[in-house]
Amino acid sequence: MPDISEYQQAIQVILGESAKYFSLLVFAVLAFRLWRRLPRLDGGRRRTGLCLAGLVTLATGAIGYFSLSHSLSLIYSHYGMRAFRAGNVASALVLFQKSSGYWRAADARGEVGACLLLMGDPREGLPLLKEAKAMRHGRSTSFEQFYQGVFWFFQEQPNKAAPLLEAATDDLLYRWDATKLLAAIHIERNDPATAARFMDPYLGVDVKESDQAYVMASIEVWRGRKAESRALLEKFPQRDLSEFWKPRFERLRIQAQD
Amino acid sequence: MFRNLLSFLLRSRLENILAAGVSLSLLVLFLTTRLFHSFRFGMHDFIFILLPIGILGLKALLGLLSSSEAGTEGDTGLGRFLILFFQPFLKIFRDWFPFLLLSACYYSLFSNLILRVNPHTADAVLAKIDAWILGKQAAFLMEPWIHPWLTDFLSLVYFSFVLSLPGVALYFYLVKEEKAFRRIMMGYLTLILLGITSYLLVPAVGPGQFFADRFTRDLQGQAISRGIGYIIQNARVSHDCFPSLHVGIPLLLSLYMRDYRRKAFIPFLVYVGLMSCATLYLRYHYFIDVLAAFIYAPAAYLLNDFLLAHWPGEQRSPVPVEPGPPETSMAAPASPVCGATGERSEP
To answer: Which residues of B touch A25 (CB under 8 A)?
Structure first.
């Protein structure tokens, strides 16, 4: 299923770029005609003409410079996001930094911040995310909310993670992952009923990831179906789990045995 | 003061008044209701109107770059020079912007109000009418003919719709038949307004979605169909079935071709026929939607001519008769208001 937001973004980019470069062309042609007209002027009119031609040329240069910088920033940001989605966070960070260097946009700052968070550098990442939010007058993108939420979740700070993940569920792209983590938070809070409600629409989804397995197995235990819970947990041997999930699965295995 | 304002309004072009009126109403609606919080800018078909504007802008730029005004350039004052420089762009803006604004307003209004005016979709009723007329749904009747190349070809025909109106409007603008251009654009906007009113009252998703689980064959489109399908799926306005404007707009254009370029009339009718097949084959419309287009398009044609003929601003500024290609002199204007709207008339 194609993503409608990507289509709309593409249209916005095409319209924005066309407007930018068209205005550049208009100013360039105006400057050209003003310079061409100069030799035929005399006295005071020549001085005024010269000033205006210089000003328009400067404006053309400025528009050209900013247009190119903005376009390069968009290109680097696009490739950065592709690298990020392919799992190459380090490459994505470099590309996002380049993008931010060309055009200090809120999105680029937020993207750099999210990459730094995921690479374990919250001291630099969090201020950038705050800066991006401030640049948008208090609004964050789903991308920033989701990865900040993921960061706080794995830092064992569910109170900070929950509102961010909840906000990220508005975006189809992050809904599934954010829902799993939100359900995990409710299980940690001894509220499996809410977790089950969160996971209700996804009961038919094959269990392939450790967070999903943890949530589903916990719900099965809460429902008293320990055999089903054990079957789920057996699919995820302890040695394959990350440090975050190991103690949780261990605890769950004991509960499922009781 | 009020009389002066009224007189000014009545002397203005009809599309300017409509554009100002519709956008102001839209603004008031969104500022005074909760719609303002969830407003979605409808940038659907109207972005294709930007295409000719871009082409005309580039043409004006190239004209400015290549024109040599060696004798006059130095003589004009700076202010006059700047006015002359920006004049072509202002003219393009003046001629096209009202249509662009109206189109954007219609689509925004539609995108934001759909299913608020009438929350019940009318697919079942439309399908019932189709069954009564044809005995079965048109999309099912066409299933035996499904073939990959036919799907690709009809997808191309279906997609060409977005370029047909801007292309025709651009052509008339470029050959400086300004009245024909304005009449076509106004006719288009009248038809869109009728269509959108109908969509709001009779919302339907179309047989492709309504009967999604009943089709026995996939359309088997190749790369072309898949690409076009992606664009249509994302750019298409939802619940826009009754009537089929994909058929209605080319039909309206063919009526104008009959008035201005009689040689193009038959090819345009063939195009309308292909478009009708495409909408049914690709499962976007019911048969009744296509039939309705044959009522809506002539209605918009007549209503638009009526409005143009009776709007004081159109009558007070008699339109100069413009020279056109030789074939146009053969074209007899079919519209009774051609004289009033300034089109060429039979000698």
So the answer is: 58, 61
Query: A interface mutation test: which of B49, B84, B108, B234 has the most A CBs within 10 A?
Result: B234
pLDDT in tens, B38-89: 556 555 556 777 888 999 999 999 998 887 655 555 567 888 888 889 999 9
For the entire predicted model, the pTM comes to 0.74
Q: Is the residue at B205 inside a domain? A: yes
Query: Residue B37 — very low, low, confident or very high, per pLDDT cuts 50/70/90?
Result: low
Q: What's the rounded Cα separation, in Å, for the pair B90 and B94?
A: 6
- Tell if the CB–CB gap between A22 and B57 is shorter than 8 Å: yes
Q: Which residue of chain B has the CA closest to A41?
A: B74
Q: For the residues A197-224, what does the mean pLDDT come to?
A: 88
Number of structural domains found in chain B: 1
Q: How much of chain A, in percent, has pLDDT values that exceed 90? A: 59
pLDDT at B319: 43
With contacts defined as CB-CB under 8 Å, which chain B residues touch A37?
Answer: 73-74, 81
A18 close to B (CB below 8 A): yes
Q: Does A49 touch chain B (CB under 8 A)?
A: yes
- What lies within 8 Å, CB to CB, of A127 at 6+ separation is A113
Token digits of residue B169: 């409007």
A55 CB within 8 Å of a chain B CB:
no
Task: Look at residue B346 and tell me if it is in a domain.
Answer: no
- Residue B347 maps to a domain: no
Range of the domain at B290: 2-66+74-341
pLDDT in tens, A219-248: 988 888 888 888 888 888 888 888 889 888
Mean pLDDT along residues B15-35: 77
ipTM of the predicted assembly exceeds 0.85: no
Interchain contact, A2 vs B230, CB within 8 Å: yes
Residue A65, chain B, CB below 8 Å: the answer is no
Residue of B nearest to A49 (CA): B78
What mean pLDDT, rounded, does chain B reach?
80
Predicted confidence at residue B46, as pLDDT, reads 64
| A chain contacts of residue B64, beta-carbon cutoff 8 Å | 29, 33
CA dihedral B234, B238, B241, B245 (to 10 degrees): -60
Dist. CA A175–CA B333, nearest whole Å: 59
Tokens representing A79 are: 């490739």
Mutation site for A-interface testing, chosen from B59, B61, B66, B89 by largest number of A Cβ within 10 Å: B61
Q: Convert A124-191 into a string of H (helix), E (strand) and C (coil).
A: HHHHHHHHHHHHCCCCCCHHHHHHHHHHHHHCCCHHHHHHHHHHHCCCHHHHHHHHHHHHHHHHHCCC
For residues A119 and A113, the answer to whether their CB atoms sit within 8 Å is no
